[in-house]
Amino acid sequence: MKPEQAKAEIEKLTEKINHHNDLYYQQNRTEISDLEFDKLLEKLIALEEEFPQFKDSHSPTQRVGGTVTKEFATVYHKYPMLSLSNTYSQEELEDFDGRVAKALDGEAYEYFCELKFDGVSISLTYENGLLTRGVTRGDGVRGDDVTANVMTVRNIPLKAKGKNVPPAFEVRGEVFMPKHAFQQLNKEREDIGEEKYANARNTTSGTLKMQNSAEVARRKLDCFAYYLLGDETGLKTHEESIHKLESWRFNVSPTYKKCKNIQEVLEYIQHWENKRQELPLETDGVVIKVNSLEQQRQLGFTAKSPRWAIAYKYKAQSISTRLNGITYQVGRTGAVTPVAELEPVFLAGTTVKRASLHNANEIARLDLRIGDYVYVEKGGEIIPKVTGVEMEKRPKGSAPVVYIDKCPECGTKLVRVEGEAAFYCPNLDGCPPQIRGRIEHFIQRKAMDIDSLGEKTIEQLHLLGLVKSPADLYDLKKEDLLRLEGFKEKSAQNLLAGIDKSREVPFESVLFAIGIRYVGKTVAEKLARYFKTIEKVAAASKEELLAAPEIGEKIAQTVFDYFRNPESQREIARLKAAGLHFESTAKEPEKESDVLGNKSFVISGVFEKYEREELQEIILKNGGRVLSSVSGKLDYLLAGDNMGPSKREKAEKLGVTIISELDFEKLMKG
User: Fold this and answer.
1) Is 34 annotated as a binding residue?
2) Which residue among 313, 332, 347 closes a domain?
3) What predicted TM-score, i.e. pTM, was given to this entire model?
4) Is 116 a catalytic residue?
């Protein structure tokens, strides 16, 4: 293709992709399938790589990410991002209204109400209609420049479209992780045996500070715009600014309302107290603003917050109900999770029958007993959880819950690894939910990506004895599938075609798909690129595995054990015979420095700026080593939030240096 042809094609594809993005994210409708959209995007990426001179900094390919940021520059806000005063009571809201009325000296005024979203505040600067900078709130005076990450949030316009767009303006918004995206992320972490994230808000904050924008893009963040600032906007009310943002194709939550007086504000608050649970994100209150921008200027600011706005916070909804029993669920990795079976109770807009109990430690901490009346809360956790016991209602003669010692599915004695909270069923090849879970993991999009195969179909295949391991999928015939409920000629052909197409999946995805514990997508890619072939991974000693990027002792041990299991060896041989790819052509990134001087690290907990995998990669690229367990020879325990207490206690006992995320960054600077 000639350069002039490429330029025209890039412009045409850019316009088409932007059109479909706008339809999907701003108008909630589509004209093409996800597959067709992905093909358009792939074509544009390929053309931009071949003809980089025509790549625009605001191309829709920026949504995919790929920029790696070593450090986030500090940026001073043109307009300070002050926090709001909070209240939980109607009386304090009425007091606020009284202060507004007094300060305006009898002048008529009205309010504008918006839901308070539980995410991360962001400042977006536009110049000549183009997004030029995205900055976190920080301390309100200055924040971090996270522009590369912000550009991956698909409903933040890279270019403002519409009439009368001023040459420069700033948009304030709330970046958040939708409930479905948060649940999917936690499902993926649970799938590889990793600790789940506690809530969507903290996860969003950490995601915005990730160094690799491609990983940020993968997490599918969202954003609601709620404030417009600028010297030449020509606006008189906050309501006008919201409508202006909507006209420029910014994503504004339609839940706002203009209120004539404080009574209408209180009605708005009451209306959304339960209805907000139906929204796709977490909310924790209502923001009330004086609508007139001139009156906002008259009212002014205190040192910390505006006098013309206040946030009403909903109290965390908690209710007491009877604990009727505890059931135990077995996951793909064999982890056993206890679930509270409750007397049904209406909470936060839904009827709650079950709640999370996390693990055996939590049951012991709460001193739970069957028949107890327990407090159940549904805050920012998505899944209801048991938070306490109403002791005065405890039945006499009740006994503490004794955690099960055998698998509820197959009866195998449970095991517990030192330093871990969960109990596991070790019957990998005979426990039904583990078998089904392993197949579900194998066929998922990031693994073998087999269409037309879902949980119900897998369950039928397993019950009929047709599929007991992933390799059995490649032996299926049309007559086998026609035995399944709901399957006819066409659906059987589609499934067989999907299985056949999966033979094209690269080694990196195959290695992830076979389901070695703790080997997530990123770790599988690192192993595949480092060892190149399945034979070399399988033959590697523990020491050789530890030498690979991102591989600590825990991962090295599980990989080593997996390939020495005769059943695993048979499975790999069958998958090879089925024609799957077991050789990589990708390259491992090169080492960057020796600043960490062969120091060893154990990483534990959840971090604000980094994923654990990112920290592992930084350590390995800069001459350090990553281990999985604490010993006297360890140099540093890198401790994040929600770190298991046993690791900290062991490190303190052995005199190992415990460092924070900030300490680690200082260490990296030498």
Assistant:
1) yes
2) 313
3) 0.62
4) yes
